[in-house]
Each structure stands twice: as C-alpha cells, then as structure tokens.
Design a protein that fits this description.
The complex is a heterodimer of chains A (587) and B (243). With 587 residues, chain A is α/β, with parallel strands linked by helices. Chain B starts with a helix and ends in a 31-residue tail after the last helix. In chain B, 41% of the residues lie in helices and 1% in strands. Classes of the chains: A alpha/beta (587), B mainly alpha (243). β11 of chain A pairs antiparallel with β1 of chain B.
Chain lengths: 587, 243
C-alpha cells in the first residue's frame, strides 16, 4: 500500500527543461509545487566539473549522463509485421536522465518552428491542394504563430540565445535567416565567432545564391545575465558539448538558467531518485487525483495534487499516459485513438569533404556553432513539381574533433593497420562535413504503443516504437542529397561524397534525439491527445508538456519549440486554468 | 569506469544537506526545498587505472589481446604500437567494470534473433563475448596453424584478423554472437583505448593525440577560433595534467 503524502497544488513529473519552466512559472503564480524526478540531482560544479568533463570515453562513449537502458529501455521494429525487440543499448537516440534531463547534454541549437509548421495542413492545402498530402497525417497544431511568438521570445531570452534575426516584424534582415517567421525583437546575444569551415561554407553558399546565417545557439557568445538574474559565461569552443554537461556555465540548461532561482523558493520542493509509476485517476477516469512513485528508499508513495504536469522526455510522457490510461490508444489499422499517434523522428543525410594540407582544427567546436542555409527547409521552396513535401536545413556545424568518435579517413582506407594510421593522420585536420536535417512527417503506420512482451524493472510494459522513414521523407531527403551534391562542388575538395538516406531505420548508430509526437496537440480530440494548451482532452487537470505534443517534426532541432510550448502552456494554466479549473477548450 | 566514488559523494551530499534546517520534511530522504544544494568534495572525478596486472584476462587471453592490438595499431614512425600504448590494459579494465558486465544495459529476456536494425540481441556480456571469442580464435589458429594466435608471425596474425574482418574465417561462437560482431567489438575497444584519455590505461603518453594533433583536455580555444586555417600551436594535455 502506497504511503499517502500531503496534497500539493501541482505535481510535476520530471525536472528537465519543461518541468523547470513549469515549476518556475507556477511557483511565481503562488502555487505549492513538487517535482518528482527519476534521476539524481545534478549541478555544474559537481557533475559537469571543468576539471574532468572533457572525458570522451566516459561521457560520449559510455554515456555517463544519459538514461541507462536498465532503468528504462524501449522496443523497436520497422513495421507491424515484425516482432519488436528491446534496444538493449540506446544508440540512434539518447534520452536524458536526472535533473536537467536531456537539456544537460544537448547541443544548444535553438530553433523556432515556422508559422507554416503550426498551420501545416492549412498552408500546404492552400498552396498545393489536398491531393499533395497523399497519405500523410499532417495536421494543424491548434496554436497559431501570432499566439506563440511571445513564448519563443521568452525562451530565447531565458537561454541567452546567440544569433542574428532574419525577419524583424516582417522586415527581412540580411545576414539572418530570411525564411524564419517574423520575430518581435533581435536575439539576446550576437552570433558566436565562426570557425574556418563554417565561414568557408557561408562564402560558398552565398556564391551559389543561397542565404546562409549563423546557427541560433544556446552556447553563449558573451557573458549574459538572463531575465531571472542568473549569470552565464562565454562559450570557450571547447569541443565537449553534446553528450556533456557544460563546465563553463555557457550552455543554456535548467541548471544555468532556472534552478538557481527555482530551488531557493519555499513553495517548491524537488524529490530526486523517485520514479513515477503512474498517474492515478478518479473512479470516473475524468480527473487525476495523484501520482504513485517509488522513492529512493524503495517505498511506494502516493502524492495527491490538483494539477498534474507530465514533463518527462516526450517518449516517456506518452508511455506514462498509456500506463495511466489517460486517453485512448491509437490503432494504425483503423486510424482511431490518439495516444501514440503521429510519432515522428528526423530525416537526415550528409556530405563529407577531404582536403590536403589544411588546418581545419575540428577540435575547436561547440554544439551549436556553424552556418546554415534554410533555402530548402520546410516550405521555403516551391514543391509543386516535386513528389514530396517538407525539407531540410543544411548546416556546416563544427561540434568537435573528439578522436574516438570523429576521425574521418578517405573512403576505401583500411580500418586498422599501418595504412589506417597514415590515413587517420591525413584525414583528421583535413576533413569537413555538412549535414541536412530534414523534416519527418506522420503516416498512419508509424506509432507508439506498449510492448506485449518486454517489461521494465518494475514489471511495467516497455514503450514500443514502430517506425520507418516514410516514402515522402525518403524522397525529400534524397532531394536534399541532390542539393548537397551541388553545394560541395565549389569547395574543390580532393574528395567529396554525399550520403543518401534509405528505408530501414536502424536503431544502432546515433542519428538524432529528436523523437516527437505520440501525444500531439491540436484542435480536434479525434486526432490529438491534448488541446492547443497541452491539456489532456480526456483528463483536464493533466497537462503534457514536451515534444510529445508535436504534430509533426520539422527540419530543425526541437528544443526551441519545446521551450516555447512550455511557456505557452504555463501561461494558459496561470492566466486561465487557475481562475476556472476545467477544460480550456470544449471537446 | 569507477563508480564507487559516486556513492561516497552522494552520501556526503546527503549527509551535508540532511544537516541543513532549510530542508523540508522529507517523504523519502531525497527531498530538496528552499536551497540550491551544494557541498564540497561532491564531485566524481575519474580514478586512473592501476597499470599493473590483469583484472579480467587470464595470462593466455592477455597475450592474445596484446598481440591483436599490436596488429590493429602497429608500431611505426607515427606512434608506438597498441600494446605499448596500453590498449590491452585498457580493454582488461573495461571488461572488469560496468562495460564488461553490461550493468547499464537492458538484459531482460526473452532473447530472440533480431534484425540488423535492432542491434545486438545476444545474452552474453562483453566480458563473456571476449572469453568465448578469444577461446574460439585460438581453436581456429590451432586448427589452421597448430599454434595459438599469439605465437603466429605478424603476417599470419594480419591474415587471421583480415579473415575475421572480411568474413573469410568463421569462429565457433554461439547464436546471437557471430565472428564479425566479435571482431567489431575488439576493434572498437582497441580504438577506444588508443584515443581515450590516458587515465583509462591506453593512449600512453597521449601518443594518439600527438599523432593526429588533438589537444586533449584543453577546453578553451577562444584565442584560436578566429585564426582560420592556422596550425594550433600547443600540444595535448590530459585530464590529470600530463602535457
């Protein structure tokens, strides 16, 4: 029998980016808030220590800061005819663990999805006609650009994003991303200094007639004090960013932007190493009454709360809703049900160029350091004569030269022996890459549900991912590879090769931790699990915050939009829901 | 990787925060409220491996692995060989620790043959895979050459390794763990040892970092980011300050 604890106004599950934002906003509104976090307490000085954070084996290869599969794994298969098996080690994507979540070891690439993303079905139908969408389950998100722009702005100023605006209130800004949707003001910090390869890329793309701009970065170009009064440091281009915590206080995370203020509030409590098992509903299933968790002492507790905010990693949000029976499981055979619907990923390809006699210094890098062209992203270009919709940003991003994982050699070189050594020496300082990060659009057969066979350490079913790259996205990605073929030509490299995406998503090599959907937001309870305020249609005192709400994934990193959605939902709770608890949108 | 210090640091952290009156009454001893927890010595620095002796390998296995890593990374004008760089020591310590035991991974059954896209589905840990693979390797060379792998000439060793890599030699392993997977595991771990920080037992004297020009743990390149296409002037440093 679980030990019953005193009631709280709000119970937050998970203290990563979204949980920290929600906690900060709700405690500001005067609520008594408890956050229940599965992993350990983590902070910069002790856990991302500048004396030993630069350890590739420990953090990048053995993945010290990540969720370990023995805590929670997932099963995967490429289609419904196959038997899903557990990913015994995480590979293709790497969820976070502990306070700060994946926001600890992200790269810091901080994008805004576009107005044409939030109203994607309306937009594409108007431009190309409904037949263009074929079997894609693209749908509007329920929220519009004008509604949510302010929340993007809030998140960017919280993080101190370094970048260059391309569209200020409708006026295009040379040097910024002229394809972005209108923003109300400039980024809080100027762009980072650019390394050689990214500078070269920007020159070549300009010559080709494209519109390069600095990648918007939560690695800070200069010291900064954010609106909460928290001081951040300047990025040192250390080359230990993604997969690592930042020892310099210069990468935005809950630790560097929120927790120093939040943790001191008397109306906030954090419980670490406590794993939520489920959200408990009232007998009629229409309201949540509490959450059950196992504490660090192995004892089960029941924490009642008026509002429950599910703020774990997106995939885990979906699983927790399934385990708690919040909403109806999606069925790909009938298309009915919403939980697990519209799972999307990211559709990427790349190009590698090799030179002779250069000093490209790949070790001078940062997670979000580079130049990008969005000329072929989203619907920035005309798709009327193409057999797909969607697109990709193409970036020359210099993140690291860490040698266990990053030591390119000329193709055809041996992988060991004396000739391998020489090829490694020749390649290390002479290699550069560019990458296309493409959109991922929903189809009926890509979805999430609970695995029928495999369970976690508490005996609960694992999440099952059924996913392969849809034909639309493969066509899109191959078109991007065609564009990259043209982009690499002016570099006159000794060698250049462009990769092409094929069907058959492989869970082993790292690709992207941009898993989206499964509890998507929208205007119709038949096709979305949460409404435009990220409030469950079925259980209105439950809000589900994260990339789980994305109705599709764009050709951009998701965290900027995740942060904006968190502020957007927090505003809805504090300005609307608290005054009149109940459904904010009639079903 | 050493993790004993983690428990110690957590105990220290908890002991120190438990003594603070600002902590709320706790449901389970991990509750934090009204403070940003911090205590001295709460970090978890890595512990350099002891370079002496073998923790996991038998003497015969150690000799085989030393021979393998010295063919994968042969000594030449670019660097010392894999053996002298400590790659076998590195692998031994990794197999004796959490990596070798799969202690972080999902090891629940049932074990079923999987698709290539589903990754390794065998029931053997890395330690178990080395034990089985090294035995099968010597079985093979004793059949083909009447000698253990370590006693072959360098050319013969290269031919065997190329056979494992290229699929021309099939070792007697077990379902869910094939010859190619064994070779890839050994190659991956050898390269990890060669390129990781020297504290883990390989990359002695930062030989690989000097070879390719990786500056190691320096962590601050603000003075060089603007110097495009110019050589970086400083040599590597390691986490424990080797320079």
């Amino acid at each position: 029998m679980a030990k019953l604890l005193p009631r709280k106004d709000a119970v937050i599950i998970g203290l990563g980016w979204t949980g920290s934002i929600m906690a900060q906003q709700l405690t500001d509104a005067g609520l008594n808030v408890v956050a229940i976090e599965r992993g350990p307490w983590r902070d910069t000085a002790t856990d991302f220590n500048i004396a030993y954070m630069q350890d590739e084996l420990r953090y990048a290869v053995r993945k010290d800061l990540f969720l370990q599969p023995h805590v929670e794994a997932m099963t995967m298969r490429n289609d419904m005819r196959q038997t899903a098996l557990p990913m015994r080690d995480y590979g293709s994507f790497l969820p976070g663990h502990g306070v700060g979540g994946a926001g600890v070891h992200w790269n810091g690439q901080t994008w805004r999805f576009w107005d044409s993303d939030f109203s994607i079905r309306t937009h594409l139908t108007q431009r190309y006609g409904a037949a263009k969408l074929k079997n894609l389950q693209l749908q509007d998100w329920g929220v519009t650009w004008n509604e949510i722009e302010h929340s993007f702005d809030t998140f960017e100023y919280l993080c101190g994003v370094s970048g260059k605006a391309g569209n200020l209130k409708g006026r295009l800004q040379p040097g910024g991303n002229v394809f972005e949707s209108p923003r109300s003001r400039e980024y809080p910090n100027p762009p980072l200094k650019m390394p050689y390869t990214s500078t070269l890329f920007a020159q070549k793309m300009t010559e080709l007639g494209y519109h390069p701009f600095p990648l918007p970065s939560s690695n800070l170009s200069q010291a900064y004090v954010n609106p909460l009064g928290i001081r951040m440091g300047q990025c040192s281009y250390c080359g230990f960013c993604e997969r690592f915590g930042c020892g310099n206080y210069s990468k935005a995370s809950a630790q560097t932007t929120i927790l120093p203020v939040l943790m001191k509030k008397p109306n906030f409590e954090l419980r670490t190493e406590c794993e939520v098992l489920k959200v408990n509903l009232m007998p009629d299933g229409k309201m949540a009454k509490s959450v059950t968790y196992i504490g660090a002492d192995g004892v089960e507790y029941e924490q009642p709360g008026d509002v429950v905010l599910i703020c774990a990693y997106g995939l885990m949000n979906v699983r927790l809703m399934m385990l708690s029976k919040i909403g109806t499981q999606y069925d790909p055979a009938t298309g009915k049900g919403t939980l697990g619907r519209n799972y999307c990923y990211q559709t990427s390809a790349g190009a590698r160029m090799m030179f002779e006699g250069k000093h490209l210094n790949p070790f001078i890098g940062a997670g979000a350091l580079g130049q990008v062209v969005d000329d072929f992203n989203g619907d920035a270009f005309d798709h009327s004569k193409l057999d797909f919709v969607g697109g990709a940003g193409v970036a020359c991003n210099v993140s690291n030269g860490r040698p266990i994982g990053n030591r390119p050699t000329l193709p055809g070189s041996p992988r060991w022996g004396a000739k391998w050594k020489q090829a490694t020496v020749d390649g290390y300082n002479n290699s550069m890459g560019i990458g296309s990060q493409g959109s991922s659009y929903p189809v009926r057969e890509n979805y999430l549900d609970l695995d029928p066979t495999y369970t976690d350490r508490h005996g609960r079913p694992l999440l099952r991912i059924t996913f392969d790259f849809p034909d639309n996205d493969v066509a899109m990605s191959n078109y991007m590879s065609d564009q990259m073929e043209k982009m690499v030509r002016p570099f006159n490299a000794k060698f250049a090769a462009v990769s092409r995406l094929k069907k058959g998503w492989n869970s082993v090599p790292y690709q992207s931790t941009h898993n989206t959907g499964g509890a998507v937001m929208g205007g119709d309870p038949k096709t979305s699990a949460v409404n435009k305020y990220l409030q469950s249609w079925d259980v209105p005192n439950v809000f589900v915050i994260g990339a789980s709400a994305f109705a599709h994934n764009a050709g951009m990193n998701p965290t900027g939009t995740v942060g904006a959605l968190a502020f957007w939902a927090a505003d809805a709770i504090t300005t609307q829901y608290l005054k009149s608890p109940g459904a904010l949108v009639p079903a | 990787m050493e993790h004993s210090s983690r428990a110690l640091s957590r105990r220290r952290l908890l002991a120190s925060v438990a003594a603070m009156p600002i902590l709320a009454a706790s449901a389970d001893g991990r509750s934090i409220s009204g403070t940003l927890p911090w205590s001295p010595f709460a970090g978890e620095p890595p512990r350099p491996v002891n370079p002496l002796g073998w923790y996991f390998f038998t003497p015969g296995e150690a000799a085989a692995v030393e021979a393998i890593v010295d063919r994968l990374i042969p000594a030449d004008h670019l660097s010392p060989g894999g053996k002298d760089c400590g790659c076998a020591i590195f692998i031994d310590r990794q197999l004796a620790g959490s990596f070798g035991q799969s202690s972080r991974l999902y090891t629940g059954g049932p074990f079923m043959p999987g698709l290539a896209t589903q990754g390794y589905q065998g029931d053997l840990t890395p330690a178990g895979r080395y034990r089985l693979g090294l035995r099968a390797l010597n079985d093979h060379t004793n059949t083909a050459y009447k000698k253990d792998f370590r006693a072959l000439t360098g050319e013969q060793q290269d031919a065997v390794l190329a056979g494992l890599d290229g699929g021309k030699i099939t070792l007697k392993l077990r379902p869910g763990f094939n010859t190619k997977q064994f070779f890839e595991l050994v190659l991956q771990n050898t390269m990890e040892g060669f390129f990781a920080d020297p504290l883990y037992g390989g990359n002695k004297n930062m030989a690989s970092w000097k070879m390719i020009g990786f500056p190691g743990a320096r962590y601050d390149y603000r003075d060089h980011i603007g110097k495009h296409n110019q050589p970086y002037p400083l040599g590597p440093v390691s986490i424990y300050g080797e320079a």
